[in-house]
Amino acid sequence: MAMWQRRRVLGKGTYGTVFLAEPTDPTAPPIAVKTCPIAKSSSLHLEERVLARLRGCPDIVSCLGSSLTVEDGTGLYNLFLEYAAGGTLADLIKKESGLCERDMRRYVRMILRGLCSVHGKGMVHCDLKPSNILVFPGEGGVLNADRLKIADFGLAKEGKEEMGFWGLNFRGTPFYMSPESVASGDIGPALDIWSLGCILVEMVTGKPALWKYRNLDPLNLLLVIAKQSPGIPEGLSEDGKDFLRNCFAMNPCQRWTAKMLLNHPFVSRPMYGKTPDEPPASPKSPWDLCPSSDALPPPGWCSFTPSDHNSEQSLLDPSASLPPPGWCSFSTTDSAPSASSGSRQPFGGNSAVMYFMGMAESSKYFVGEV
After folding, report:
1. Single GO molecular-function term (predicted)?
2. Which of 75, 244, 251, 323 could bond to 327 as cystine, CB 3.0-4.6 Å?
3. Strand ranges in 181-338 using DSSP code E only, listed in sequence order
4. Cβ distance 118 to 150 under 8 Å?
């Protein structure tokens, strides 16, 4: 790592302090430096090893190296990380007092992709929460283009680890811990999924999932966590509620995996003709408005086959009550056209299809290709 200078403090945690730092090379971007005394640096060493295994994952914060320095006679271990100018997801939730569902779907999908990478390497984050998820603003200040990356792997574990209830050797932050991790010290990927559910609840309400128990002493709070599932917010769609039910299965063996949840309609189903983390695209045909490429129109729609035509009659002519001869062939059916019948034929270029719905069932028709 090149020479650098510490600037302001970005945050403080149990295992170190994070600074904004600027390399002495004026062309280099700013970085984040996590620093702690060498004698207490085991957590940072673990984080560096984990991030090395996850190098190249786009939904995981990048580690840029490490160094040792001596300041005021104290040896320090410094871990260099990419700088997130947007702060953390916790900052975003606090600023907005809860997020809109469109953004929630995008953000949850990004977190799930990161968890797939972590779990695919046989590891568990163990402390997934909004303050450990970094926000990277979209390039050029594009709205709704923030990217999230999972950070802070100082408590990460490989595989499962039995810690034991009576040893009180808990890992993580109570509001995001799963029942099995508290009751029996069972640490596995299912813990991160429970934590993700808690994060989604917080995105909706602006408060941690079990916030009403915040005044309990630590031991009684853990007893509540061990036997109670967070409530499902009413302000969430049915897809979102079902997603949370799969995150909050009390039996960790019945909890969905990150890979399974990536295929859940809450994050996989397009919204307004787009994927959850991509900008909307203008529809090129009525089929673009369907939830999936295999979807069929509702009963009563017309089956049709476009044909060659030379008419230049405007579709906007109010006197034209019917399509001109040769514009397209059409018929009214009592059921949706079959996907295998050839009636759903694609239109090329920038063509579009328009249709009118008459008052009578027999007056439904497509008016042509433009």
Report:
1. protein serine/threonine kinase activity
2. 323
3. 186-187, 302-306, 328-332
4. yes
**Boundary of a domain, candidates 202, 236, 268:** 268
Q: Is residue 274 part of a domain?
A: no
Non-local (6+) Cβ contacts of 83 within 8 A are 20, 29, 30, 31, 32
Q: Are residues 106 and 39 in the same domain?
A: no
CATH of residue 207: 1.10.510.10
| Angle, vertex CA 276, rays to CA 55 and CA 349, nearest 5 | 110
Q: What is the pLDDT of residues 237-271, one digit of tens each?
A: 999 999 999 999 999 999 999 999 999 999 998 66
pLDDT digits (tens, 9 = 90+) for 181-238: 998 888 999 999 999 999 999 999 999 998 888 889 888 988 899 988 899 999 899 9
3-state secondary structure at position 366: strand
* Tokens of residue 250, six digits: 């009390």
List residues with catalytic annotation: 127
Max distance between CA atoms of the chain, in angstroms, equals: 91
The C-alpha atoms of residue 49 and residue 153 are separated, in whole angstroms, by 9
C-alpha neighbours within 13 Å on the C-beta side of residue 198: 27
Answer left, alpha or beta for residue 198, where phi above 0 means left and psi between -120 and 50 means alpha.
alpha
How many domains are contained in the chain?
Answer: 3
The secondary element (H helix, E strand) that includes residue 224 is helix 218-227
Known binding residue 94? Answer is no
Looking at the structure, tell me whether residues 174 and 196 fall in a common domain. yes
Is 251 inside a domain boundary?
yes
pTM beyond 0.90: the answer is: no
